[in-house]
Amino acid sequence: MQITVLFFATLKDLVGQSKLTFTLDSSTATVEAVRVSLADQYPQAAANLQSAVCAINEEFAFTTDTVKDGDTVAFSHPLAAVNKARKSSNLPKTP
Q1: How many domains are there within the chain?
Q2: Taking the CB of the first residue and of the last residue of the chain, which one, N or C, has fewer CB atoms within 10 A?
Q3: Any idea what the Cα angle at residue 38 is, between residues 32 and 78, rounded to 5°?
Q4: 27 pLDDT exceeds 50?
Q5: Alpha carbon distances (Å) from 20 to 12, 57, 67, 83, 85
């Protein structure tokens, strides 16, 4: 299966690109399986991938959520994801 992977914040710097096409051996996988495969391919980003927030097709995802062929999977540092959510909503900028 092929998916598009997006990297934001520090992960983009560690991987060296913001977007890539990634091939997995199975027809479905979990977010955790994608994380492990990416960490194998990009060991310099492994620690950051473990703490990253994930989204599948622009919806926040859990480690057990299923990734399917053609999905877009995004990984970002948790604070970068919160800041983006605040900018795109009516949430107060300060607590």
Answers
A1: 1
A2: C
A3: 65
A4: yes
A5: 11, 15, 16, 23, 23
